[in-house]
Amino acid sequence: MPADAEFGVGVSPLALGGLGLVATDLDGTLLDSYKRVSPCTQAAIAQLYERHIPLVIATGRPLRWLPPVWEQLPLRPLCICMNGAVIYDSFHHQVLRRAVLKPTVLRDIVQSVHEALPEACFAVERITSEMTPSTGEGPVEEFLIAEDNEHIWYEQNAPRTSLAALAEEPAAKLLVRAVGMSSAEIAEVVCPLVEPVANATYSVDGGLVEISHPVATKGEALVRILDYWDLSEETLLAFGDMPNDMDMLELAAWGVAVENAHPAVRAAADEVTMSNDEDGVAVVLERFLSA
């Protein structure tokens, strides 16, 4: 069966305007379940490089989690990190943009969410534009956990501090976990509390919500990148799988969800491709590159 028939593909504006930029999420989208970039996907990305079509990585990951991905790519891409809080040039090791929550805003959000969800646990991601002294590369990052809840966080050896101290310095992300609740359930409580002074979203289903500056979204970061390169959104092809990818897919001329994507993302996408374990991103790239 032709790909167009199998995945319900219509006529993309990209077919008329030409492919100018590709943006993709990592976990659950570009990477397979073992956090690998498949040889098929590597080959498709190499074709982008050969045709001078930029690739932008758009992820909720902090910057320090990206080197294992870069090592698997045939190029050093521009990276949107922490859902848009940071735009990072991985070739020149330079932070191009930061959007952080100010301490006054952080304090109000922590207080409001703590009152609404007394059982919630908090952490922050901080990042500066300074270089790391030991390597002379990349910015200084800090992940801090509030009080004694290290067992539920992904970096259990991270420094611990008081809940009040989390809000003493600007943060790229405030993270909220609540055991026994899904991410969607937490978001339903948190979103009305933080809008419009912050943006709340989630990239996993396991009871974690990420709160950032209102302009710290993948879509907003891509608007800036498109403007810098003098490209139209009508030339943008984007891939994603979770709610934190939604505004990126809506911005793109052609937004693609992988088969394993969140139901809301699948419903909003222009196309649903194969899963991240079946080279779904590569399948679409190869189709556009061969057109």
TrEMBL record:
A cellular component annotation (GO) from this entry: cytosol
Entry GO MF terms: magnesium ion binding; phosphatase activity
Source organism, top-level taxon: Bacteria
UniProt xrefs under Pfam families: Hydrolase_3
Xref: InterPro entries: Cof, HAD-like_sf, HAD-SF_hydro_IIB, HAD_sf
PANTHER family: HAD SUPERFAMILY HYDROLASE-LIKE, TYPE 3, PHOSPHOSERINE PHOSPHATASE
Protein name per its UniProtKB record: 5-amino-6-(5-phospho-D-ribitylamino)uracil phosphatase YitU
